Amino acid sequence: MLIEFRVTNFRSFKDEQKFSLVRGTGDELLASNSFTANDANQMPLLRSAAIYGPNASGKSNFLKALRAMKKIVMESALKGQRGDRLSVEPYRLSRATKDKPSEFEATFIAEGIRYQYGFSVTSQRVEDEWLFAFPKKRQQVWFQRAWNSETDSYEWDIGNQLIGKKQVWQTSTRSNALFLSTAVQLNSEQLKPVFDWFRKTLRLAQVGGWDSGYTADLCENEESKSRVMEFLRAADIAIDDISIERTPFNPADHLPNDMPDPLKEMIAEELKDKQLARIQTIHLDEDDNPVIFDMKKDESDGTQKLFGFAGPWLDALENGYVLFIDELHGNLHPELVRFLVGLFNNSETNPNNAQLVFSTHETSILSQKCFRRDQIWFCEKSTETGSQLYSLFDIRGVIKDRSNLALAYLSGRYGALPFVRDLNLQ
Fold it and tell me: What is the enclosing helix (H) or strand (E) of 389?
């Protein structure tokens, strides 16, 4: 369960920006759209949030910040070598920030314990790293490290509550790797829930969602396929059955002839000895005879996108994952967007309190019938301060249950709209 995420000095974010899934005051949609966390503090949290804003406002960069944090957690100790550069991009439109570290911090609940974990990094090294745990409401400092440029070394504070081979983990941690990731690779069981939250629970999709591979894998099991089919039927997708055909990868059959040879060789090496899935949909004709269609060639972009969503969506709802999706609305009818969001904002379809955060331009769901005010966020960008994130809950004058949010947003009342000028071609 995600509680809060903070980012500073990353891409279009100059100053610290805070995104929160903590429920605010107000009893609107209380039972459906919010829940009580299973940690010691019994924190009230939200099941979903939508982020609105014009193109190039920073919505995608917000997701890229989470992706950058997850990548560094996943790869800095396992894949990196001494001297390798870290994948961060500071805010480059200010002399004060372009050479400063980017900072990320996530507060979340894993296995019933609240954690506050973060780090600041440049492309050369980790500048700071910290982890606080709250197993019994009170804060415990599990570890902190900070780079001292005068001594060219780290200052460490490793708390007594962290057990294990702490000295080994400390001396094994490279300057361009995280202590968290290094300790887990060296068998720290205590830190594994923190690492696994990033590895398993936090799920990030690119623009357009997911490809169809994961859902196709589910369809090879009859029980899982029945769940996928029920998902598609509930979304009013008229498919009677799905068939998955596996074929060995063959460059001559699966790669275009005009592809450059170096690229062709690289892809061929990556897919060597792998099986490719051909997804076929089955429709019944007027005489109830099955007719086979090819998913990629014959089905609409919206159907393909929804099929790709089916597996991750069902997986998240079953396991309580946290999904972040950029531009959820693309190629989908507004009612399908409402359907997808509604599966999260429902205690019956979301019994394990999965969370969904998505950016969108779809204003038909910008309504207090769909969302609480604290579930609606805006992102806008200025030349002085970079991208800014703020919640509708913090804007004065929004009347609970009565304001027409979509109309007010499109009229400019909440900001985060494109400023379109007249085009002069003379």
Answer: strand 386-391
Long-range CB contacts for residues 112-116, cutoff 8 Å, separation at least 24: 112/38, 112/39, 112/40, 113/39, 113/40, 113/193, 114/3, 114/37, 114/39, 114/40, 114/41, 114/43, 115/193, 115/194, 115/197
> What are residue 129's DSSP bridge partners?
119, 145
Report pLDDT for 402: 65
d(CA 126, CA 216): 39
CA neighbor of 155 nearest in space, from 165, 170, 141? 170
pTM: 0.91
**Structural tokens at position 132:** 């606080």
Domains of the chain from N-terminus onward: 1-208+326-426 (3.40.50.300), 211-318 (no CATH)
Which of 88, 103, 326, 73 is CA-nearest to residue 198? 73
Per-residue pLDDT tens digits for 409-419: 888 889 988 87
How far apart are the C-alpha atoms of 362 and 327, rounded to whole Å? 9
Q: Give yes or no for residue 382 having a pLDDT over 90.
A: no
Residues in the chain: 426
Radius of gyration of the chain (CA): 24
Structure tokens at 62: 């917000």
